[in-house]
Amino acid sequence: MSHYTQSALLTDLYEITMMQAYFSEGMNDRAVFEFFVRKLSPARNFLLAAGLEQVVEYLSGLRFDQDDIAWLRACGLFDPGFIESLRDFRFTGDVDAMPEGTVFFENEPVLRISAPLREAQLVESRIINLLHFQTLIASRAARCVIAAGGRQLIDFGLRRAHGAEAGLLSARASHLAGFDGTATAAAATLFGIPVFGTMAHSYIEAHDYETDAYCRFAHAFPKRTTLLIDTYDTEAAARQVVRLARSLRAQAIAISAVRIDSGDLDAVSRRVRAILDEGDCGDIRIFASGNLDEYALQDLIGKGAPIDGFGIGTRMNTSSDAPYLDCAYKLMEYAGQPRCKHSMGKVNLPGSKQVYRRRDGNGVMVGDMLALHDERIEGDPLLKPVMRDGALVAAPPGLQDIRRYAGSQLAGMPAGLRMLGPAQAYVPSVSPGLLDMARKLDAWLRAQSANDRARWEGEAV
Amino acid sequence: MSHYTQSALLTDLYEITMMQAYFSEGMNDRAVFEFFVRKLSPARNFLLAAGLEQVVEYLSGLRFDQDDIAWLRACGLFDPGFIESLRDFRFTGDVDAMPEGTVFFENEPVLRISAPLREAQLVESRIINLLHFQTLIASRAARCVIAAGGRQLIDFGLRRAHGAEAGLLSARASHLAGFDGTATAAAATLFGIPVFGTMAHSYIEAHDYETDAYCRFAHAFPKRTTLLIDTYDTEAAARQVVRLARSLRAQAIAISAVRIDSGDLDAVSRRVRAILDEGDCGDIRIFASGNLDEYALQDLIGKGAPIDGFGIGTRMNTSSDAPYLDCAYKLMEYAGQPRCKHSMGKVNLPGSKQVYRRRDGNGVMVGDMLALHDERIEGDPLLKPVMRDGALVAAPPGLQDIRRYAGSQLAGMPAGLRMLGPAQAYVPSVSPGLLDMARKLDAWLRAQSANDRARWEGEAV
């Protein structure tokens, strides 16, 4: 993934205006920013971290190229000296992050950047853009995986994903969360995800006879054929499939599955299963699709619908019931001083942080604690070193390793969090060290504000 | 926009498996497909067509490159002869479409492709992906534009848009719908959209004193400065701005606006306005942001909040209240024969169609009719020729022309459709010719199904 997705201008303009102001002020001390989700949607009991690999690619490749420089000159906002300084721009900072596939909760930093201020500021928009989207999709996909109880799940969502990158990254995020594959061919080439697909209704309709369509398709793909049977009359089509399967067996062509894309999937799948079984086609699987999500999966599986696999599209790829996360990338420390927005009546948690997770003897999570990054707390630290001085600490894990890790993370959640409905929230506690720092910062901010006003009342700037 | 967004593999695998089946069957007669939205969300009284320019770019540049060919070979599903045929693949078809910025309604074809079957099939996934997303965003953005009543609107949504392309295309779609500009720098370079941005809370927080931050930023950007005033204490910050504005005037530095990003925007903006006005800063505008959408705009403006401009992000860029359209790209005709999925109990509308719109003497829309493309009906035909034999009929309109056209389209809607709440649906009627064709096709499909079964019962295939 490169091109405009790698452009240094793929950011909010204010990141660059702030950089210029910092440049003219000579401000470039070390800044710590953290990405976190403030509050989970009522429709989510947990979130699954995803997108780190793309963040690392972005940070590693970040440059202002000739076109970027030319635009900055032409737009009339920036000083020549500042623009020149961008020619050598590189990301030289440190990154610590939860590995992709980690389950996390509100206010927990998922990624922490420690870098010279201008670098840490510029990357805000794209880091949020990447972590927000893949985490959003992986989290909804994980709910589908839990609801599917081991049945096959295929991502069907390119067409209504929000653009090309959303289609490709949601194929990745859903595979990471446990989906078996995707329908999107380019996601197979980019990420090595298993790819699936056979025919649309248009294929049937373009033929004068449905049976001709089936027969010819089976001959074109003798090893793996799924026939779509709901174009005209689903049960009649299932009976045609039975007859066809018999005659194709003699030619060593196997029909592997039928797909149903409309109607009452529970009722129709039962009738189709009966027709197939009575026709000695017990080996033909039933695959279903059409506006499905985790609730539909739970309902169909709960009723015992004989469906072996599901195509899940739009609702997963747009996270339709919660299409964004309440996430932020916030300055936590600058030049060694903790920093924070002062929200009246709320305790904010500044400083460079770590999340510690405790588990019981069976490996089930029993509590998280937010702490200062150098505070010693019981439990496993969730943020791990990813980059130091702009370089990777280790080769990033492969997608299959991430997928296995995500599976173990989902398995290690308390049962309540695995339910689709709202569970008692899993809220991290706050360490004594962090609380103490927050209180001290609050007092410092109040003193600074008072000093600031006093300066103003005494003198002109 | 090129690279993977232009890959021929940015499609569902089934488009390519169908192509191979058509290739082995020698089927490549002319096919007509149409893109349309089946039903509008209850949260939308109209939709605004967008995305055609990107569709045309995609169709014009569509090629299977070496990497695509190599992957098709390696994946083991496709025949060498078929793969070889793709080296010369070009889109050679015709495109008719509603110009971008056209208001449209349920079941109205927005785009019609007439092309050799394999070409028309392959492009399905990306055409839907492009038209769906920009139409989704333009439609929500248009609601914000109507609610804003002429106040400035800036797209703030890159960070929580669903990936890079979503961020960039939502900047385009919202500008087309009437937004004044975007915060996304790369959208300015790609589409020439006016770009805005100054500072985040982190800029204030990185300084030991808020006033120092303001003063230094104003010196760094003496021509255009918007100061963010809600980091610590909004009213105290507004008073600092007044004092600072006085001292900066002597240096010919003007503060153009303050931004408020949190709190009760109505109450806070009134207090800030009063402080600014009392401090002889009536020329400093107030800009507001933070989880805004058309409902918040209507509410704030209805109450008379003294806000001059708004930053609209997440809720517009994800179309959060209706994050997808119930849209489809369906085969309507093959080899001169109308085609259709047979949904029991529903009349489907096959064939190559046109939409005719009638207006009253004031130019206000009074009714649309779906008709056969060659039927003569009263009103203006909405689908216009865009490509013939794979080539553009005329240079595409510029974004500013599209924006003006969209404005006139929104102004020409009946008042009810411009309300934010649900209006009486504007439903196109169906022409006698089209109804007649649908009935004939229904009878033909029934006859074909009966023939198909009869063939099966008599013989083996």
From TrEMBL, chains A, B:
Entry's family note: Belongs to the NAPRTase family.
Gene Ontology molecular-function annotations: glycosyltransferase activity; nicotinate phosphoribosyltransferase activity
Catalytic activity: 5-phospho-alpha-D-ribose 1-diphosphate + nicotinate + ATP + H2O = nicotinate beta-D-ribonucleotide + ADP + phosphate + diphosphate
Swiss-Prot/TrEMBL keywords: Glycosyltransferase, Ligase, Phosphoprotein, Pyridine nucleotide biosynthesis, Transferase
EC number(s) per entry: 6.3.4.21
Keyword Phosphoprotein part of the UniProt annotation: yes
Residue ranges constituting the Nicotinate/nicotinamide phosphoribosyltransferase domain according to the UniProt record: 152-331
Mod. after translation: Transiently phosphorylated on a His residue during the reaction cycle. Phosphorylation strongly increases the affinity for substrates and increases the rate of nicotinate D-ribonucleotide production. Dephosphorylation regenerates the low-affinity form of the enzyme, leading to product release.
Role played: Catalyzes the first step in the biosynthesis of NAD from nicotinic acid, the ATP-dependent synthesis of beta-nicotinate D-ribonucleotide from nicotinate and 5-phospho-D-ribose 1-phosphate.
GO terms under cellular component: cytosol
Record protein name field: Nicotinate phosphoribosyltransferase
InterPro entries (alphabetical): Aldolase_TIM, N/Namide_PRibTrfase, NAPRTase_N, Nic_PRibTrfase-Fam, Nic_PRibTrfase_pncB, Nicotinate_pribotase-like_C
Pathway stated in the Swiss-Prot or TrEMBL entry: Cofactor biosynthesis; NAD(+) biosynthesis; nicotinate D-ribonucleotide from nicotinate: step 1/1
Organism: Noviherbaspirillum pedocola
Coiled coil: none
EC class: ligase
Record-linked SUPFAM superfamilies: Nicotinate/Quinolinate PRTase C-terminal domain-like, Nicotinate/Quinolinate PRTase N-terminal domain-like
GO biological process, alphabetically ordered: NAD+ biosynthetic process via the salvage pathway
Residues covered by the Nicotinate phosphoribosyltransferase N-terminal domain: 9-131
